């Protein structure tokens, strides 16, 4: 089914993004990856179109989408995975760094939508839907530790912009065009060490206490998120839009009592 489908993944060279790129490629999608790290992009399969650039720069996003369509002839899906943090005590926060977090993690999503929507609609013109967008948020949008305001606020915004886009890009009486589905995934603790570029790769080591924090008995992997992305992009999920899927091994549901 996916043999002629095309996806763009932001921050697609390492971690969760890398797992998504590889999972899509293995499922016969044609894939482009936008990432600021040229070294990491070079380690992706040759079939993947690597675009070096900053997701926080609208011109870069527009170019990445144009190059994807030029290379593959269409665009069916966007996976907005890019995110950074600038955490620290609120009384000493560098607000320029906070704005940078918002530009990459949140404004970048609006940029990919702005420049990608026409292509998503065109690709879906002969089908039931006009493509799909999946935004990677975080369980930190729902719960926090101290000194995480910038990241938590940005990821909370990702969930909000997801349901807003789902309404804006769904079926509307004033527009005769295919609906574009928009959903979010909020990962919990995902071990990305083995999914970094070769020069930064590290083995996963977790204690019993780490595992016991999760009702499923383990820390998450990037593949856990990639499988959910594949499902949300598929026609099997055609009745799902505006949703936030929390994938955290049950960690955010576990009640903890201090002794």
What does it look like?
This protein is α/β, with parallel strands linked by helices. The protein has a single domain (6-253), classed as Rossmann fold, CATH 3.40.50. The protein has helices at 15-26, 38-41, 58-72, 95-123, 149-168, 208-212, 222-233; strands spanning 6-10, 30-35, 49-52, 77-80, 132-136, 181-187, 244-247. A seven-stranded parallel β-sheet has the order 3-2-1-4-5-6-7, sandwiched between helices. Helix 1 packs across helix 7 (222-233) and helix 3 (58-72) runs parallel beside helix 4 (95-123). It is globular.
Short characterization:
With 259 residues, the protein is α/β, with parallel strands linked by helices.
Point out poorly predicted stretches: none
Shape: globular
Question: Architecture, according to CATH?
Answer: 3-Layer(aba) Sandwich
Question: How are strands sequenced across the largest beta sheet?
Answer: 3-2-1-4-5-6-7
Overall strand count: 7
Number of helices: 7
* CATH homologous superfamily grouping: NAD(P)-binding Rossmann-like Domain
Which CATH class is shown?
Alpha Beta
Structural class by secondary-structure content:
alpha/beta
CATH topology tier name = Rossmann fold
